[in-house]
Amino acid sequence: MRRRSGSRRFLAAGLLLLAGCGGEPPAPVEPAATAAGLDTVSVRRAPVARETAFDGIVEAVNESTVAAQTSGRVVELPFDVGDYVPKDAVIARLTDSEQRARVEAARGTLAEARARLTEARLNYDRTKDLQQRQLIARAELDRASATLDSAEARLEAAQAALEEAEEQLGYTVIRAPYAGTVVERHVQMGETVTPGRTLLTGLSLEHLRVVVEVPQQHIGPLRVHERARVLFNGSSVEASELRIPPKADVTTHTFRVLVSLPEGDHGVFPGTLVKVAFVSGETERLLIPAGALVERGEVTGVYVVAADQVSLRYVRTGTPTAEGDVPILSGLHDGDRVATDPIAAGIAYKSRAEASRGEA
């Protein structure tokens, strides 16, 4: 007992000596962190959709080039490339003096035709009355009838001419067939255009689809399940509709499948390359939450917790499911427990590694 007391006094004295010399006692070394307190989830085997992925090109469902349907000089061109255009907005206007003159002329011709028809009817009725009273020959009535028929035909032709002239006048104002964005402008202000001359090209980003060339050996399961996901920029969107043609291309032996995206802004644009994962059956895979993955360069891993120890294990993953889980193709076993918070698990892992180096 006396020896222990002496030792304690000797230690205390040493500490006082260090304090008197301006030194400080060394900070105690923190014990290495363990897996206690980490949230984990058990790796489970569950049925998932078996998918076959192909490259596809995004295109707009509504993309068109508007052309002039009458002649004139461009006097209004309010939209340029990149501008958003509401539906029915005026996208171009042409001079209309010639078209208006034709409308006025057609109206005059129509009025004259109506007057001639009225006269022809009166003459026919008078001639018919006289012929019934046998005051004139039958031939006179036939001539009056022919004149009436001719007047009616002229009236119909005049009405059609007026409708055509008014239609041509309407063509001098060009409106957007749907809401969209201008992607190309083919004319400039002041240019004279004729029917068929292209004016603007536009497309709508509200309705997009992906065009995929599917080899003939894969088309059978696609027809059975008719489900697909569009994968891009680390995200996936469930397709709203699949259109599978009844025949393949005779040269490439592929089917041109149209995969429609649901309405909304998905961050993809016409012309971009994406992946389309078609459901081709069902299989079982080990699943973990996507948030448990750790990315280190081109390598993917997870923190595995076992016997109160944390270890980093590299894995090979498959395409994430629509529910947000990730299939594990190799690196884990059924029943393994992985940390759901890789940041906290990484801190524990690093602390234990540093403690191990200190002990060595």
Features:
OB fold (Dihydrolipoamide Acetyltransferase, E2P), alpha+beta, conserved putative lor/sdh protein from methanococcus maripaludis s2 fold, single chain, 21 strands, 11-stranded antiparallel beta sheet, 360 residues, disordered N terminus, 35% strand, 3 domains, Helix Hairpins
Highest-level CATH class of the largest domain: Mainly Beta
Rounded to the nearest angstrom, the radius of gyration is 42 Å
Structural class: alpha+beta
Task: Profile the largest sheet.
Answer: 11 strands, antiparallel
Q: Can you give the mean pLDDT?
A: 87
Q: Low-confidence parts, pLDDT < 50 over ≥5 residues?
A: 1-33
H/E element order: HEEEEEEHHEEEEEHEEEEEEEEEEH
Total number of distinct structural domains = 3
> How many β-strands, per DSSP?
21
- Percentage of residues in DSSP E strands: 35-45%
Total helices: the number is 5
What is the general shape?
A: elongated
The CATH topology of the largest domain comes to conserved putative lor/sdh protein from methanococcus maripaludis s2 fold
Distance between the termini: 35 Å
Fraction of residues in H or I helices = 25-40%
CATH architecture of the largest domain: Beta Barrel
